[in-house]
Write a structure and sequence with these properties.
The chain is of the alpha+beta class. The chain folds into 3 domains: about 110 residues, no CATH class; about 100 residues, Serine Threonine Protein Phosphatase 5, Tetratricopeptide repeat, CATH 1.25.40; about 110 residues. About 45% of the residues lie in helices and about 15% in strands. α3 crosses α4, α5 runs antiparallel to α6 and α10 runs antiparallel to α11. The chain is flat.
């Protein structure tokens, strides 16, 4: 269910982005607002009427307004609170309405179901900061961001917000170190402004600016990781996903690894040298890379019988890849 909801949401965003392209081009802020509003409404409608209970005419009532949809979603979550995506959507709806306290409450409910979800942890930390007059990240918000990065070290929003929190705490050197790895994965348009922020933090810390080549580290691999919906119901809510890159035909020791929450799939990730395990072998040094994705119920990267995995693929440096986890380890 979770994987389907996320996939449906992504499809909605793509379709709306194409349909609203003229508005997006001429008025990007307005276009983004329309896309997000329609996507949110679509998600709410799915949670409310896209379930088996909606087949019963006595249960089905399409909401007339977004406010009506929010009220129905609140009622649905009160009846069945074990819906991570429902709480996430409700938090987004509250945020759009400026209900900051309710945003925090909804995200807290979501985190009870998915405590290691890096996206939820980052959203919850941001919500705590937005609820304060000075938009400051308190100790609990910083702890959430660190936990998010422990699960997903290159989570862009998590790293950005942690750096802001460190700047707020008068720790410019730590902020610069937190932000610097992002230069390898952000797009070219963002890289220049990010570098300015890093150099400003380094200056406040008494450090020299970054050298000219520090912000041109190549993005190594962009990987789409998804899970066959048929396996979702067999998966533990605590299961984790390991995305592993290694030398084809070589030793089984991974060159780079990324650990994800299984509940976060489908997801597009970027592996770079910052994900490399050994200082002597970097991901960018390999011309060909074998990629593996595995769902582990035990939390161990070593495959065991009953785990789920994707068929390994071999790609060349710079190529995009797609991994579908659709088979059981025998």
């Amino acid at each position: 269910m979770t994987a389907f909801v996320i996939a449906a949401a992504l499809l909605v965003l793509v379709v709306l982005g194409c349909a609203l392209r003229p508005l997006w081009r001429d008025k990007p802020v307005a276009g983004a607002g329309v896309v997000l509003s329609l996507a949110l409404a679509t998600g709410l409608l799915y949670v409310l009427v896209g379930t088996p209970t909606a087949l019963d005419p006595a249960q089905r009532r399409v909401p007339d307004t977004l406010a009506d949809a929010v009220a129905q979603l609140e009622a649905e979550l009160k009846r069945n609170p074990n819906q991570v995506e429902g709480w996430r959507l409700l938090a987004n709806a509250y945020a759009a309405a400026g209900r900051t306290a309710d945003v925090q409450s909804a995200l807290a409910s979501a985190l009870k179901l998915a405590p290691d979800d890096a996206d939820l942890l980052t959203l919850a930390a941001e919500a705590r900061a937005l609820a304060t007059p000075d938009r400051a990240f308190d100790a609990e918000a910083v702890a959430m961001l660190r936990r998010a990065l422990a699960q997903q070290p290159m989570h862009q929003r998590g790293r950005w917000f942690l750096g802001i929190a460190q700047r707020q705490a008068n720790q410019p050197g730590e902020a610069a170190r937190t932000w610097e790895p992002l230069l390898a994965i952000v797009d070219v348009g963002t890289r220049a402004s990010l570098r300015e922020q890093i150099d400003a933090a380094r200056s406040d810390a008494g450090l020299a600016p970054l050298p000219p080549a520090a912000d041109v580290a190549p993005v190594a691999l962009t990987i789409s990781v998804s899970l066959d919906p048929a396996l979702v119901m067999q998966m533990s809510k605590d299961a984790v996903v390991f995305v592993i890159a290694r030398r084809p035909g070589g030793a089984p020791m991974p060159v780079a690894v990324r650990k994800l929450s299984a509940l976060s799939l489908p997801q597009v990730i970027t592996l770079t040298d910052t994900d490399s395990l050994m200082p002597t072998t970097k991901l960018s040094q390999l011309e060909s890379i074998e990629l593996i994705a595995r769902v582990s119920a035990s939390g161990d990267a070593t495959p065991v019988r009953g785990d789920f995995e994707a068929v390994p693929v071999i790609v060349r440096q710079g190529q995009a890849a797609a991994l579908l986890i659709d088979r059981v380890v025998e």
